[in-house]
Amino acid sequence: MTPHIEAKKGDISKIVIMPGDPKRAELIANNYLDDYRIVSEVRGMKTYTGNYKGKSITVMPSGMGCPSMGIYSYELFKFYEVEKIIKVGTCGAYIDNFNMGDLLLVDKSFSESTYALVQDNISINLVNASSNLNNIIKSTAKELGQSIFNGVIHCSDVFYEEDSNYKTKLYEEYGCVACEMESFALLHNAKKFGKEATEVLTVTDNLVTGKRLSSDDRQNRVGDMIVLALESAVRL
Ligand code: HPA
To answer: What confidence score (pLDDT) does residue 17 get?
Structure first.
């Protein structure tokens, strides 16, 4: 047990799929996992371990932002011997090249966060996703007939980013094509512990043009993303 996870060691699989939202974790378990059980529910963050096509998988919510993702990914990698984490989530685009609902695979995460500095005295603002996981996800997407973009994500500490010049600057200087809020802590912890992590995202809104995905389309596209993450996990 850790301060934030009450599962026994063997109760968590080597592969963890992490949505941000606890409700989405429940939905993934209900709709896709066979024989699942709840292995932890500290702070209501219900964590499910079950089988997808015969492969043991844990689904755990990360919560929002690097502090929350940082805690859970640290404890999973360090105390539960988790090897691979695939985060699934949504992102807001910084450029107009995306259609709403497009899937984006994270190559690198850029962040202004002090997460790596405070935890490990490492002063960086870019961290890579696992190229092994990314290659498997790309080939799985091809097999499933899904198209997926890849690129640099801005891992922001701010949801209500009101300065549009700043988004343009991040695109021009670092190639950030969209933003979310958890990747930097996840990818940094994976690197620290010699593990593998990445993120698959659904583009749900455009922060420059104000376009948004309708709620029906959101359900469908998020469903495609979840299937891609689970099918990739089976191939690991
Ligand atoms: N900001 C951060 N994360 C997000 C957003 C956003 O606008 N949209 C979806 N995830």
So the answer is: 98
